[in-house]
Amino acid sequence: MSRVLFPKISAYQKEWLDVRGGHQLYIEQSGNPDGIAVIYLHGGPGGGCSEHHRRYFDPEKYRIILIDQRGCGRSRPSPSIDNNTSADLVEDIENIRLRLDIGYWLVAGGSWGTTLAMLYGIKYPKAVLGFILRGVFLGNDSEYRWLYHNTGAACFFPEYYQEFNQHISGVNHKKLLQEYYEVLTGSNEIAAIAASKAWCLWELRLSTIEHHHIDIRHVDDAHQALCMAKISSHYFVNHCFIEENFILNNLAVISDIPAIILHGRYDMVCQLIHAHQLVQLWPNAQLQILPKAGHGGFESQTIDGFCKAADTMANFITEQGNMGK
What we know:
Elements: E1 13-19, E2 23-31, E3 36-41, E4 62-68, H1 86-99, E5 105-110, H2 112-123, E6 128-134, H3 141-148, H4 158-167, H5 176-184, H6 189-207, H7 222-237, H8 246-249, E7 259-264, H9 272-280, E8 285-290, H10 300-320
Parallel strand pairs: 3-4, 3-5, 5-6, 6-7, 7-8
Antiparallel strand pairs: 1-2, 2-4
């Protein structure tokens, strides 16, 4: 039987944590305060967390922690790319764990959140009970080329790519990412907002196979779009501030930690091949290919797979007697 999201719940605690570099991180907790500690890491970079992310997890079993990563969402300032690197985000996660007095926790995430989850695990493996990763992104050059050159996803969505490319008029596709970054971080606020909406529309159109006829009206939150586009382009022009193949080259550090990896077969944002490569090097990782899913976190098969994975991890962690205290 297919699973649906758990019913809506409210956060029982919200706070802002001061971290280095002049940032304040938004943190919320919901579910069972005495349950298994889980942190969910949102995508983007710069996407922000959603109240629906709480609903992947059984609120009776889990102490659910959501955050807005530095520079986006309800974190302050927002949007901001100052003092904003992968290393900063990893340290932010560890500071949150210490702030909340959690010994170890389940680390979950989607898209860019999978990248960040694995980077965190590589730096702090003893703090991780396990991983649930949806839509794997490794932060390698081939993934940027797939998204922003005309030889990747553009081959499947040529009319959408043409619109995305022509928004920055007259630019060679090989320079498209850099040109978007310059507009998004430039002094012309009107141009930056327009570019951010075009950026988010391109990714939104690639993300789902359940919804069609997506146009600019579906990008209706200007602040969220600017956070997403500005911070994503900042990370991508800087190769996510990691060396090429960094995660694969350091995977041995987390290879003993159990992981459930979910990936849509028709994911046009993050290619399935990278999840496949990952599990070849990760003996304790299980790849579940979702046969009728794309990249979106709230497609039917993705919801079903994620909720079942969360239950599987809860049972495993409970059997091990390791609740995150």
